[in-house]
Design brief:
18 helices; two-stranded antiparallel sheet; mainly alpha; about 80% helix
Length: about 450
């Protein structure tokens, strides 16, 4: 007989985890699978470089901008309900992407796809934290979650290469349809409905300011309009001041008083900036400079995928035994090392060197995901784990957007020197976020957030 924890059997809990991981699979894989298709899309739709960057960035920016709003909506009207809407919307967006006749239409369909995607990852994490309430079982579930992030992002380029060579670039969107269908069925039968006991108010001004800041900064990078950085900075200052004065803000500034949480947010941006730059630049390099086919490109990415598949679950086990410091420091060292090797990338770089570099990058990236999520939600009150997870997920998407945007601004070694510096920051933050000072800051924040939740409930 299965053992029960609360109202759910252990078997059903892991069916819920599997269902949530399916949504993560398609959203995360879509962040990377399209990169391999970029050269084919460029030729088929005659798209300029800036439009190619927007195919990636409209998706990641929309995810980043709307994740918090979808998390609040799920708390209000039901997590399973919002999750199912997200799956259906993502499926429709994927279908429209596969039918797009122009690059502008494709960018619009990617926008719709991302609207669906923003209802999946943060809501799924909120469902997981509601189902897995014990400290050990939650750590294991988050470890699986982090592993799926790494594995899905790693498999994206390889799966994409095979699909593109066999069926064309539109096939990278077809693959989402059966996965969405299976996830919808599993959600209907196994995922319990849940709502937050305290309903957050709507903060349209804070939401609008956050979206404006993100789009102004990335638009300035992609389109080469640095004049837009000034309104982005001004908007950020206004956003921080406005949110600090609200009783129920869109993003609670108190989160950032926890050094582990603030560090996890910055680490996510640094690591995913590296990923965005790596996938976008290397896909163009392999197909346009080395003249490899899409499937050949995907096969070379197997070195990264294999390393991520090994090191992602290893990261979860390391966290359970030693905490987040070891995997974070190791991840930063490996990612910095890969970036330094990429500074030497050229038309005649030996294939064995590419394989080694891709594998080192995969090791580092595989290690970094689980500690980001763990640091973000660990120590937070039960009612705030969804918001904390959504902020961590938002930081990931912001990082990918910045990485892709930087790929059009900095060329060759200059880009990789910058990435090496950013990923070295992961090493520093890995140490800082695990000091006694940092842990005390986290312990001070949790009661403040619980008090705020209790005040709203009253």
């Amino acid at each position: 007989m299965p053992t029960t924890v609360g109202e759910l059997t252990t078997r059903r809990k892991y069916l819920v985890l599997a269902t949530c991981c399916l949504s993560l699979l398609i959203v995360s894989m879509d962040s990377t699978i399209v990169n391999v298709a970029i050269p084919a899309i460029r030729g088929d739709l005659d798209a300029p470089m800036s439009r190619l960057q927007w195919i990636i960035d409209i998706y990641t920016l929309t995810l980043a901008s709307l994740m918090m709003l979808s998390g609040a909506a799920a708390d209000r009207i039901g997590r399973r309900h919002v999750f199912r809407i997200g799956l259906a919307t993502f499926a429709v967006g994927s279908l429209l992407c596969s039918l797009a006749p122009t690059v502008e239409t494709l960018i619009g369909a990617r926008f719709l796809q991302a609207i669906g995607g923003c209802m999946l990852n943060p809501v799924a994490m909120s469902i997981i934290t509601q189902v897995f309430t014990g400290r050990v079982e939650r750590a294991r579930a988050i470890g699986v979650w982090g592993a799926v992030v790494g594995i899905s992002m790693a498999l994206g380029p390889t799966v994409g290469g095979v699909l593109i060579d066999a069926f064309g670039w539109r096939a990278v969107f077809w693959i989402n349809l059966p996965i969405c269908a299976v996830a919808l069925i599993l959600t209907t039968f196994f995922v319990p409905e849940s709502k937050s006991s305290t309903v957050r108010g709507v903060d349209p001004i804070g939401q609008a300011l956050a979206i404006g800041v993100l789009f102004a900064a990335v638009f300035g990078l992609v389109e080469g309009q640095p004049i837009l950085f000034a309104p982005a900075v001004i908007g950020l200052v206004i956003f921080v001041r406005y949110e600090s004065r609200r009783v129920d803000p869109f993003i609670d500034p108190r989160f950032f008083r926890s050094v582990p949480f603030a560090s996890a947010t910055v680490i996510a941006v640094f690591a995913f900036t590296a990923l965005g730059a790596f996938l976008f630049t290397c896909s163009l390099y392999l197909q346009n400079v080395r003249h490899y086919s899409a499937v050949h490109t995907g096969l070379l990415y197997l070195a990264m995928a294999g390393a991520m598949m090994i090191f992602s679950p290893l990261s979860g086990r390391l966290i359970g035994r030693y905490g987040t410091k070891l995997p974070l420091v190791a991840a930063g060292v490996l990612l910095s090392g890969a970036a330094l090797l990429l500074t030497r990338l050229g038309p005649d770089t030996p294939v064995w060197q590419l394989v080694v570099t891709f594998a080192i990058f995969g090791m580092g990236f595989g290690l970094v995901n689980a500690p980001i999520t763990n640091s973000a939600v660990n120590g937070m009150p039960q009612e705030r784990t969804g918001a904390a997870s959504a902020l961590a997920s938002t930081s990931r998407q912001v990082g990918v957007s910045i990485g892709v945007a930087l790929s059009g601004v900095l060329l060759g070694a200059d880009l990789w020197w910058l990435i090496a510096g950013l990923t070295l920051g992961i090493v520093i933050l890995g140490f800082v976020s695990n000091t006694q000072w940092a842990l005390r800051s986290r312990d001070r924040v949790a009661p403040l957030l619980e008090q705020k939740v209790a005040t709203h409930a009253g």
